[in-house]
What does this fold into?
Amino acid sequence: MKFKEKVMVGGEQIGQVLKNHTIRPTVQRIDIARVLLAKPQHLSADKVFGLVNTKDELVSKATVYNTLNLFVDKGLINQVVVDSRYIFYDSNTESHHHFYNEDTGLLQDIEDEGTLVKNIPGLPKNTVQTGIDVVIRVKNQS
It folds into this structure.
């Protein structure tokens, strides 16, 4: 499902998007989905936690993590692991690669659709390829 098809504004519409991904809509899940699907973006779990908890109702950190993992498992969002310390949740589930700026912590999409990964080694026996994730790490020039 392309990102544009997922962008919804009302809670009822977001609830339907969740149902389409076999996710039971709860108040917390709708709030978290509303934050994630507002626009194409890359958010950490802590950032999602902060954005969701700007209202009167509080959502626990455990609920945020569990919901993010559920959304990933159901294909609503992607998880981008920069390294074991930096995990982002990407609202764009189309196949694409990323730049990660080590100085700023910014993760951004690589817009060039012509990016190719060549000379992929043979897969181990009894396995199938499910994707290729490329994160190009950059630093600001001094």
User: Anything to note?
Assistant: The longest strand covers residues 78-83. The first helix runs from residue 3 to 6. The chain has a mean pLDDT of 87. The helical segments are 3-6, 11-20, 27-36, 45-52, 61-73.
